[in-house]
Predict the structure.
Amino acid sequence: MTAPSDVSRPDKILYPDAGWTKADVVGYYRRVAEYMLPHLEGRPLTLHRFPDGIEHEGFFQQARAGHFADRVGSLRIRHDQPTGSVEHMLCEDVDCLAFLVDQGTLTFHRWAARRGAIDRPDLMIFDLDPPDGDMGLLKRAARRVAALMRDCQLSPFVMTTGSAGLHVVAPLQPRSDFDAVRGLATRMAERLVVEYPDELTTEQRIEARDGRLYLDVMRNAFGQTAVAPYSLRARPGAPVATPLDWVELDKGDLRPDGYTLENLFRRLGQKGDPWARMFEQAIDLPKAWKAFEALD
């Protein structure tokens, strides 16, 4: 393991409001690795890097840099033109995680598919961001998505994003392609909008939402990514994307950015990772499609 003295510029302040340094952030990721790495295994990543801290503009990186070669895994994936073939990054051990953080990475975004079945996702993702931080609406929307997933024989899991919203995710057996998964997610979102037209929308244009919560299913597409569980976010307080138990949505003080670098390990010590065995509940997508069509 890399010694703390090997962190470049360890005293560099990355979160000025809380005083968290690069050494603190590397230490966080080393400590959380046992919970986080299973969620990254085999998945191409996009990094959100902030070499000068969150008060300065960051940038996204999906292609593996040349000087990462000895420290970071890779998976070459062919995309539609003009992107062509891209050598994506894989991170599957704690030293790789620490190395990428030492390069200024704060947030890890992951694919919904893994190496060996890169065109067949094993996750369906609903991204829920409420207008004006309306937590009541956000919680209701998450429960409604989860209820419909259960009606479709899917097993829903929920996570705070560490930003403004929640992700509701269902594990899949990696047998269907992205178009099929996104197709079902789109139909499900449209059904929910019909049932709750005053609160939910599939309008991508913000000005057309009229205060309704947008059911974003666009992450269910080839090449799209979603924030990885236990990733830090580049926001004041160093919030963390945190998997939850469903009963935790009943907590009055629940906030999408409520778990942070400072308090996450207290929670993990009490509850562990609620997503640790999620793929034991994965189903084949045609079964979910059949259940959905039977609802009409």
Observations:
- The radius of gyration is 19 Å.
